[in-house]
Amino acid sequence: MLRNVCRQFPITPLINKRIPVRTLRVSEIRFNDKSEQSSKDSFDKSLLKYLVCPLSKKSLRYEEQTNELINDELGIAYPVVDGIPNLIPQDARKIHRNEMHKNDSKLE
Amino acid sequence: MYIFFDMSKVCRLTRMLSFGGCLNLIGRQRTPLLRTSSSVTMDALRTGSSSASMNVFDRSMKRKQKAWASALVDADKYDYLRNEVGSRIADRIFDVARTFPLALEIGCGRSHIVQHLNKETIDTLFLVDVNEKALRMTAEMDIPTHKVLADEEFLPFKENTFDLVVSSLSLHWVNDLPGSLKQINNILKPDGVFIGAMVGGDTLYELRCSLQLAELEREGGFAPHISPYTAVTDLGNLLGLAGFKMLTVDIDEIEVYYPDMFQVIKDLQGMGESNCAWNRKPMLHRDTMLAAAAIYKAMYGNEDGSVPATFQILYMIGWKHHDSQVKPAKRGSANVSFGDIGKMNELSRNKPNS
C-alpha cells in the first residue's frame, strides 16, 4: 500500500523526512548589544551642584549605599544606572517614612 | 490589486477634472486639525504657563517608541534628517562668536548637533534625553560630557546654570511647550542663548492629506494620524511669553524622496517619530493604506515614481534677558522725523552727485 503511494508520489518520503525542520521567518529587526558593553562608571558627585529634583526644583542628596539621588522633602529617590542619573519622575521610587527617618538619624 | 488600480484612476480623474475643487476639499479637511492645534496654543497663552488640561501626547508611549527605534541594528540608517538638522543648528551656534563654558543639549538622541561642534565652542557639555539606549550610544567627543536621563517637560537643572541650550527635533512631542520654554529660560544664565529646532508648520502634509482622503473614502471619516504642529506665527509669541529676548524664528523646508508611502511610514517609525497622540487610532485598515498609497502617488508623485515627503523645520533663537543687551531707544529720543525717511533716500542718491 505504502509503496504504491510512494510510486504515485515519489517525492513524499523525502518531504516526510524534511518536515520537522521548519524555519521561522525572522523579521529584519534585530536588537544590538552595544548598550550591554557600556562602562560601569560611578556617579560623579560634582554634578550635584547643577542637578535639582525635576519636580520641586530643590537640590538632591546622593546616597551611596543605594546608589540613588534623594529628595528628602518629597521622599523620592531617583536611580543612578551606570553613572547616568535617571531623573524622569515616572521612574522615581517613593521612599517609606521609616527609611527616611533612618537616613535622617544617620545624617544627625 | 483591483482596489489599487481603481483608486489611482479615480484620483487621476478628479485631478484632471477639477484640480481646484480637489484642493478646496483638502483645505476644508485640514482646517479642523489646524484649528485644534492653534486653540491649544491659544489656551496656553491665556493661562500663562503649565496647564493641566493640555495633554495631547502620550509621553510614555513616545518613550517606548524611541527605545524601540534606537534598539534597531540599523538605527543610524534613519538618522539622515536629524543629522542634517543637527548640522544646520551647529552652523547657527558657530555664528555666535563666543565660547560657551557650560552647554546643554535637550533631546540629544545620538548627539546629532554636538558631533559637529568642538572644544573651541563648548567647554563642558550636558546631554539630556528620555531614551536611555540612545544616550549610551552617543558619539565619542573631545568635549567633556555628562549624561543625564530626563524628560523635556521636567528639566532637572538649577536656575542660571547654562550659557547655551540647544535642542533639535524633540520639542514637537512636548505636551506643554510654553512650560518647557519657560523652564529652558530659567536654567539659562543671563545673556545665555537657546538655539532650537522642531518640526512644525505643514510637515508631512502629503501623508496627512492622502491618509485623510483615503479614510474618508473607505471608512467614511478620519482620525488624526499626523500630530498637530506649532505654527511659525505662534512660535514667536511662545518664545516671547517664556521670557526670551532678541528672538529669531525662521522656517526651513526639507523635502525627502521615498519610493512609496510605506517607506515614508517605515522611516518615520525608524526615527522613533510614530504617532503618539492620545486620540490616535490604534489600527489602519490594509485597504485604506493601499488607497492612501495610491492617492499619495497620484497627487504628489514625481515622474520617476518616487514620492516626496516635506519636513518644515522651525528654527528658533532666543536670548535670556541681560542689561547689556540691545534695547529699544527711549520714547521721544529720536532726532530724525519719520516723515524724512522718504527724503533720506533722495538725499543719499544726490550725495554722490554733489
UniProtKB/TrEMBL annotation, chain A:
Keyword Mitochondrion recorded: yes
Keyword Translocase included in the entry's annotation: no
Annotated GO CC locations: mitochondrion
Compartments, as annotated in UniProt: Mitochondrion
Record's keyword terms, sorted: Mitochondrion, Transit peptide
Cross-referenced Pfam families: Trm112p
InterPro entries in UniProt: Trm112-like
Family matches, as PANTHER family: PROTEIN PREY, MITOCHONDRIAL, ZGC:162634
Classification via HAMAP family: UPF0434 (MF_01187)
Family: Belongs to the PREY family.
Name of the molecule in the record: Protein preY, mitochondrial
Source organism (scientific name): Erpetoichthys calabaricus
Taxonomic lineage: Eukaryota, Metazoa, Chordata, Craniata, Vertebrata
Gene: PYURF
From TrEMBL, chain B:
Broad class of where this protein is predominantly found: mitochondrion
Subcellular location, record wording: Mitochondrion
InterPro entries recorded: Malonyl-ACP_OMT, Methyltransf_11, SAM-dependent_MTases_sf
Gene Ontology terms: biological process: methylation; mitochondrial respiratory chain complex I assembly
Pfam families recorded: Methyltransf_11 (PF08241)
SUPFAM superfamilies in the cross-refs: S-adenosyl-L-methionine-dependent methyltransferases
Tree of life domain: Eukaryota
Keyword tags: Methyltransferase, Mitochondrion, Oxidoreductase, Transferase, Transit peptide
Domain Methyltransferase type: 104-195
GO molecular function annotation: oxidoreductase activity; S-adenosylmethionine-dependent methyltransferase activity
One Gene Ontology cellular component: mitochondrion
Family: Belongs to the methyltransferase superfamily.
Protein name: Arginine-hydroxylase NDUFAF5, mitochondrial
Organism annotation: Erpetoichthys calabaricus
Name of the encoding gene: NDUFAF5
